[in-house]
Amino acid sequence: MVNKTAQMKIQQMSFMLLAVFLFFSLVGMIIITVKMSELRNSATELEKQNAMLLATKLASSPEFSCGDVYGTPKTDCVDLDKVMMLKENIKKYSNFWGSSNIVIMRVYPTNKTIVECNPTNYPNCSSINLMGKALAGYDASNFVALCRKEKDKGDIVTKCEMGQIVIRYEEAK
Amino acid sequence: MINKNKKGAMEFSFGWIFAIIAGIFILSLAIYGVIKFINLERQSQDAQTAKDIGVLMNPLESSFESIKRTMITTPAQTRIYTGCSNETFFGTQTIRVSQSTYGEWSEDGTNIYFQNKYVFSENPVEGKNFYLFSRPFELPFKVGDLIYLTSTKDKYCFIDSPKNIEEEIKALRGLEESKNENLFLEDNGDECPEGSINVCFNSVSGCKIKVFTNYKYVEKNGKRMYYQDDALMYAAIFSNKEDYECQIDRLMKRTEQLAQIYEDKSKFIFTKTSCDSGLSVSLIQLANSARAVVNSDSIGVIYSLADDIDRQNDYSGCNLW
């Protein structure tokens, strides 16, 4: 009879300890899940901030900027001829700017349909998808001048149009 | 009777022993978990701060505006470790942060990688407030922006500096002297703030950093770092030999790639408009020279070539940059 009571007590204690252990494990798991979600959100937020700041300054990057090619130096001016050649060499730049994709679009004059630029149809096109990826995820953008050199009645002229740099980024996984 | 009492005093039931062992096990596990969790939390905080610093460097990309300086403030005493690797095509800039909590520094944090940044700083740079400023690196076209990171705790005293450097530091300091100011201009070392890092120009004694403008090199910790323009001179002043040489290598790789893009652009414009820049051969030469640069000792050669190319571009009817 004494032995049986002792066994019962040990069993009770074991179950109690197991329950306490499971309870704290569960609480721990919930905390970790919440923290992971917070971490993911802040990583996405940082990606967003990076994309926004990049969009405002990418036009000054050597691979995009007009420099002094089109007369006086210009801010937020993208040399479209140079960007076309950048696209030809884009493999080396795959992770260079830390964004998932960069798209340069002509805003004005408008095109009825989006025509992707290539050396054959350039400049009669409206978009340069630099990384060539599908347009997925979130984006941040900035308006810029898109300038290029053109031949007009035998003269070499500068032509600038209104465009947009779109920086694409994905949600942190 | 006495025996019976003694036995009762010493007796531990199995239940007690089991509870004590299990309790110790659960408590140890909980303490271990909490310590791990706190470390993980601190590491994630450090990684976030490092990424934040990198992101905040984006606006330092210069166009043609004058030189400017920005300050970043961290919530706690922070050590920023900058690193450079040239293993991948463009190489990588790493930023790692360690923060102090109740006087204890967090364990080595996570490295955050950037391919498009070139940061020059002491390693580590420690403080709560940090100044950042940048200068474009041109060879002869813009290759990138060199970012200089200094702590407000490290006071740099520029002694007998040339006129152009003096003007530039005055512009960085602004009209009113900030209480966090860390750049000083003096005619001799005695007037420098106490504990400052003295940067001497063309002088041989009493300075931690010596800049020889005639021979175009900076001597720091007994090591020479060669430069050609002011952007690289500041880079040598604020960083160390290993990082400086690694960043030179990365900049040369980007120069090589940009020379390739400009050469392609030259051909592309010629096909489109029959306008010939006449720079194709020179750009191939520039790319080859950039590839051949192994350290700052041989950087002079590429600069003289870049000067020639820049002149050609200026007089070309179809300039490329």
Question: Any overview of this molecule?
Answer:
The complex is a heterodimer of chains A (173) and B (321). Chain A is of the alpha+beta class. Chain A has one domain (1-173). Chain A has helices spanning 2-57, 80-88; strands at 77-79, 101-108, 127-129, 138-152, 155-169. In chain A, a hairpin with a 2-residue loop joins strand 4 and strand 5 (155-169). The radius of gyration of chain A is 29 Å and the shape is rod-shaped. The termini of chain A are far apart. The mean pLDDT of chain A is 89. Chain B is of the alpha/beta class and 321 residues long. Chain B has three domains: 16-154, no CATH class; 156-222, no CATH class; 247-315, no CATH class. In chain B, the strands form two sheets. In chain B, strands 1, 2, 3, 4, 5, 6 and 7 form a seven-stranded mixed β-sheet that branches. A six-stranded mixed β-sheet of chain B has the order 9-8-10-11-12-13, with helices on one face. The longest helix of chain B is centred in the N-terminal third of the chain and has 43 residues, at 14-56. The mean pLDDT of chain B is 89. The chains are: A alpha+beta (173), B alpha/beta (321). The interface between A and B is large, with 53 and 54 residues.
